[in-house]
Please model this.
Amino acid sequence: MKDSVVPTEQYVIRGGVPLQGEVEIGGAKNAALAILAAAIMTDETVTIENMPDVRDTNVLLEAMGGIGVRIERLDRHTVRINGAMVQNVNIEYELIKKIRASYYLIGALLGKYKEAEVPLPGGCNIGSRPIDQHLKGFRAIGAEVKISHGSIIAHAKRLIGAHIYMDVVTVGATINIMMASCMAEGKTIIENAAKEPHVVDVANFLNSMGANIKGAGTDIIRIKGVSRLHSATYSIIPDQIEAGTFMFAAAASRGNLLVKNVIPKHLESITAKLIEIGCDVEEFDDSVRVSRTGELKSTQIKTLPYPGFPTDMQPQAGVVLALSEGVSTITESIFENRFRYVDEIIRMGANIRVKGNTAIFTGVSSLTGARLTSPDLRAGAALVLAALSADGVSVIDDIYLIERGYEDFEVKLKKVGARIERVSSEKEIRKFILQTEAVS
Ligand code: EPZ
Model:
């Protein structure tokens, strides 16, 4: 997306169809973004497989191409990267505005070249998104870091391992410090580290390039600096949040879905909540089956760092609790503005009150279709789930936000029975309404 014109595509959905069948999950967006950045830490060629073909990864690849990284796209999900030609970073601010995760280039470039200059990521619509812990880690290993003219400028004569205690559990800072310190002199210890599956995936990727990182997935990560990193071929883990979104879609639509290419262990907190509200969940080696037949029961959810219930699943869970008998609550403990979907589904008939960082849901038997606007990536996905469960037709605007993190979302949903089209005109919406009226 070269210019800054906001895409106008929409989803039009006629709800009421229980989703049934099989859905294949793609590679984890939040692992891919860090791994693509880390791939430039060697001058040799790195091959990344099972990369999700979504807006965020494509924008990051475009930004990397713009600073001299050689990128060869073998297919939608496989890319070959060579960072030999990269020097100082001066990514166009426009691209940074589209994707916060370009801040991973700071850790990668600082770790490789001992210097980096990257525009500060903008705010995000789910909260303020500070990066103080990233800067704390870079400074701890010897970098001078300043913010000037909207950019972060970091450089170090030497990078020397340090013992860093994170003040908050933060995925981004944990990953960025791992990258910045993997070729520092001596040992770095990160205490109170994030344990998300994508943190482990980035550590495994760096180790496949010759890094020496131990303890990823626990709250203490130990990194022994190595002199250089080498080529590798690496396949990204399945996306825990895409999988969870389809699991909750089965619950919202009274469906029965086999969600394939997953790591069930990564989904444990999601599975536990679905069982608690009355769904059946069956686990296999690399798939889970979620089905819902009866009425859903209420529950309480509090979002927490992994292995707790993921904040990225909070809006999707909110839609289902809006349809669960009784009173449920969700407490959002990670971000301060992640209930933006609530006003939208209240317009569909939901009964929800938000007080501070807690939402109180009084279940209703059904929702009705409406004109909706996607507030952000996961809230947008939640609106799709609401529309799939609702009586009648919904139209969702700003779906480019959803396409940041979901590949072929409407294609995958159609394959399991959803009546959904990706449109860009009122004419197409009217055609869809007539066509689906006939069969409903
Ligand atoms: C990552 O964001 C994900 N994004 C987010 O997913 C996810 O919600 C989040 O982790 C939590 O799991 C990517 O991986 C690209 P954090 P990140 O640093 O790293 C505070 C999605 O939908 N904090 O773990 O930015 C922060 O304010 C996106 O795919 C500091 O105070 O999240 C928040 O309260 C949305 N100082 C908490 O930590 C810092 O320096 C967790 O943030 C950094 C973070």
Summary: The CA atoms of residues 88 and 263 lie 38 Å apart. The chain has a mean pLDDT of 95. The pocket of EPZ is lined by residues 29-30, 33, 101, 126-127, 129-134, 168, 170-173, 194, 196, 311-312, 334-335, 377-378, 405 (CB under 6 Å).
